[in-house]
Design goal:
Layout lengths: L1 H9 L4 E5 L3 H14 L4 E6 L3 E4 L14 H10 L4 E6 L8 H13 L5 E7 L12 E5 L5 H14 L7 H11 L4 H15 L7 H15 L2 E4 L12 H9 L6 H6 L6 E6 L5 H12 L3 E4 L1 H4 L7 H15 L3 E5 L2 H4 L13 H15 L4 E7 L17 E5 L4 H14 L9 H7 L5 H17 L6 H9 L4 H4 L1 H14 L1 E2 L3 H9 L1
Parallel strand pairs: 1-5, 1-6, 2-4, 4-5, 8-11, 8-12, 9-10, 10-11, 12-13
Antiparallel strand pairs: 2-3, 7-9
Helix pairs in contact: 1-2, 3-4, 5-6, 5-7, 6-8, 7-8, 13-15, 16-17, 16-18, 18-19
This protein binds adenosine-5'-triphosphate and magnesium ion (MG).
Length: 502
């Protein structure tokens, strides 16, 4: 990134917009670049102090440069080449006067080797400036930079020399954090354990989970269930099992590509979310849920995009990982048709997300679920976007037996006491979730009467339930018809195939 900024400055780009939440680190990098490019001076503007030369005390502030316009005017008046950093100009940038001042300033920079750098955690560029500005995301520290942080920490704490392997583990554990955050977690791990060795990696990782939690858009999900807790969907489960080791070095050497992602479509309550969550356990990867509702932030233009970008960056930084987007249809519902309703934000978010999916090279497996296919933008369904699109249908009789067994077993009941076949028969049209609910209802009924629940209680509960497939027959039928054409069935594929061939 330093190289890129250096090149832009050498090529006399007048306006660069750096999106970053790490001011100090970014400033330092710019100062180094300035040093490299013929000792240009660096000035920093803030709304609190006005313009101060980089590295100089605050009282040396240039007279009367606190207001954005006065500061820009001051910059225009300078004759020497220089780099002028404006920190957090974004709240002012939408004012017509500021925008105009900026445009005039940029125009006056031609041939002067002056460059303005806008630095802010959110990207906000008025249309008038879009053509003139280069927007760059200042990346989180890489392994080399984290290595410096670790070195510094080890030196300060006079820790004994660490092996390369330990060092690598300590470093990898902090990938995805800002420099400050990395410093903090190393310090905390050291304070807690009085040393920094491999055994402290866990402390660092749990700190990192805390930090990720705090950002609120990504969430670490820990799931106790295994894929065995999902009844039916045999083909889908096999597909997943086959790919258990696909993020290993061995798979790369073998020549396999990294799986990109899968989309699970299906009737509500048929285990889509459950499958997604248990896959992480099966594959031994961390599961990060991306909360699209929280990505959207109407408080400021550009904030939603920045949110998404940050979340995706964080996910990449802890890869290999599974990025779980539940209810993708809801997340991108506004994209088709009603794009104008939110000033096009959802369309832009959708665009950025697709681009990211297309271009990502880091091992982040996207696992998405949806049940309202008609609201899902067509782009998601195009071949090659996901490795596979599965359709999870209502369970058939045999699958319902499995589901009854799973849920009775979960509640530590002897399956032999029940006529599972009969239960499966009377629950025709029920989803997995509805079967589970029927068992729970039967249990409540019996518990209230202070006795153990029986076959009859479950049957009574089933009879008392109107399943979704009956109350929403049209939607369910439409979904099935649609999915049969376009998605791979989660089970029964082999059986159907055999019927065709033999
Ligand atoms: N095939 C199944 N096998 C076992 N349990 C199931 C199955 N399907 C659903 N369940 C039970 O129902 C619960 C809810 O299912 P889940 O949330 O995974 O459904 P979903 O398909 O994601 O539904 P929605 O479309 O409403 O989000 C599960 O946690 C599980 O206990
Ligand atoms: Mg779900």
């Amino acid at each position: 990134m330093q190289e890129e900024i250096y090149t832009l400055i050498q090529a006399q780009y007048p306006l660069i917009y750096l999106v970053t939440s790490e001011e100090e680190r970014t400033e330092k990098a710019i100062a180094q670049i300035a040093h490299k490019s013929q000792q240009r001076r660096v000035y920093v503007w803030t709304v609190t102090h006005g313009i101060v030369e980089y590295g100089q005390p605050r009282h040396t502030t240039q007279h009367n440069t606190v207001s954005p316009e006065a500061a820009i005017e001051w910059v225009v008046r300078q004759r020497e080449p220089g780099i002028f950093i404006f920190k957090d100009l974004h709240p002012f940038i939408d004012s017509p006067a500021t925008t105009r001042w900026l445009r005039d300033a940029i125009a006056s920079f031609k041939g002067t080797s002056k460059v303005m750098i806008l630095m802010s955690p959110v990207q906000q560029v008025p249309i008038e400036l879009e053509k003139e500005v280069v927007v760059l995301d200042y990346p989180l520290p890489d392994l080399a930079e984290l290595n410096q942080v670790l070195d510094h920490q080890l030196e300060q704490t006079k820790s004994r020399r660490t092996t390369t392997e330990t060092r690598e583990k300590l470093l990898k554990a902090t990938l995805g954090l800002t420099r400050d955050e990395a410093e903090k977690v190393y310090r905390k791990a050291y304070v807690t354990a009085k040393r920094l060795t491999e055994s402290e990696v866990d402390i660092i990782l749990s700190e990192k989970k805390q930090l990720i939690r705090r950002n609120g858009i990504l969430e670490f999900i820990e799931e106790d269930e295994t894929l065995e807790a999902v009844g039916g969907s045999e083909d889908l489960k096999n597909w997943l099992k086959q790919r258990s080791n696909s993020f290993t070095e061995r798979a790369r050497e073998y020549g396999l590509p990294q799986p990109k992602g899968m989309l699970i479509l299906g009737v509500p309550g048929c285990g889509k979310s459950l499958i997604a969550k248990t896959t992480a356990r099966l594959w031994g990867l961390p599961l990060l849920r991306l909360d699209m509702g929280r990505v959207y932030d109407g408080s400021m233009v550009g904030r939603s995009e920045a949110n998404l970008r940050n979340a995706l960056k964080t996910a990449e930084s802890i890869s290999p990982t599974i990025l779980f987007i539940d209810e993708l249809d809801k997340a991108f519902a506004g994209t088709s048709g009603s794009a104008d309703s939110d000033g096009g934000t959802s369309s832009r978010i959708f665009g950025s997300f697709l681009t990211w999916m297309q271009e990502k090279t880091s091992p982040v497996f996207v696992m998405a679920t949806a049940n309202r296919v008609e609201r899902l933008p067509g782009e998601f369904l195009r071949k090659g976007r996901f490795d596979e699109i599965f359709f999870v249908d209502l369970p058939n009789a045999e699958e319902r037996q499995q589901i009854f067994k799973i849920h009775l077993g979960k509640r530590r009941r002897d399956i032999a006491r029940f006529d599972i076949e009969q239960l499966a028969k009377v629950s025709d049209g029920f989803s997995g979730a509805e079967i589970e609910q029927a068992i729970i209802a039967a249990m409540y009924e019996a518990f209230a009467q202070d006795r153990e629940f029986t076959q009859l209680d479950i049957i009574a509960a089933i009879k008392a339930t109107l399943p979704l497939s009956k109350t929403m027959t049209e939607q369910v039928t439409a979904l099935r018809d649609w999915a049969r054409q376009r998605a791979r069935p989660a089970s029964g594929f082999v059986a159907e195939y055999q019927r065709l061939e033999f």
